[in-house]
């Protein structure tokens, strides 16, 4: 079992039952074992995988994925989904680049615009889904296209080169590790604390577990849902800044298909697609597994079709495992 928040009405964080703690530890150890096993496998297949350069490269490439996965964890816990995060990443980066290059804004103001763009996109997705009681899958699918179109309009369908204006986020700091990676780790820790140690986190889990019970308890789930999607958009905006800093450019095609990687990382980490259960820490394990898998396949010379087939198979296996785990939990509940 992944770590979840304490019961909804508990005024303070209650001690987790011993069985729950064992389940959490088992999840962590299981994911760590998978990660170590993959590292050992690729290390045996490639002479260059087990090197400092490889791991530094992986660390500096995953911040955008990790940050978006934090938001997606909360979305899946409320039994929603957001397919627009890749497009929001592109539009936020495009807005930042346009502010710097075309409008001559200062870098902090331009970065704030990029973050606000992501926040607005997420809030619109959540508000439309809640107001018309539409599946978030459909709403975010529409947003995926609309926001991508916005990115093309802002950039005139061309890559905007911002140079080193915001490159500080991707600059090597400690042992070659970028500031963006350290920021992503901090956000993972904050996300886990919010999920497990705050009233908001308990409400998020409550919505995913039994939304009707939340209403009967006098808690309106609608604003909570909107906040979750808005925060996810904000984190996608931050991911756009991170990617632009690494590439020193804003590409309107950036983030195409990354929403699938984000969802895969969250599901591999044990967050339930059915809602009500998840952990940001285990999501980070999922991000690392996805990153190591891609880096390892690239180093052993796997073709692009092969990499997609293998990654897709890993996602399907993770979903099957989640479904079986949910069925066992339901049987125990009965």
TrEMBL record:
It is found in: Cell membrane. It is a multi-pass membrane protein. The chain crosses the membrane at residues 28-50, 62-81, 87-105, 112-134, 173-195, 224-242, 254-273, 280-302, 308-324. Its main location: membrane. Signal peptide: none annotated. The keyword Transferase does not apply. InterPro entries: ABC_transp_permease (IPR001851). Keywords: Cell membrane, Membrane, Transmembrane, Transmembrane helix. This is Ribose transport system permease protein. It comes from Variovorax ginsengisoli.
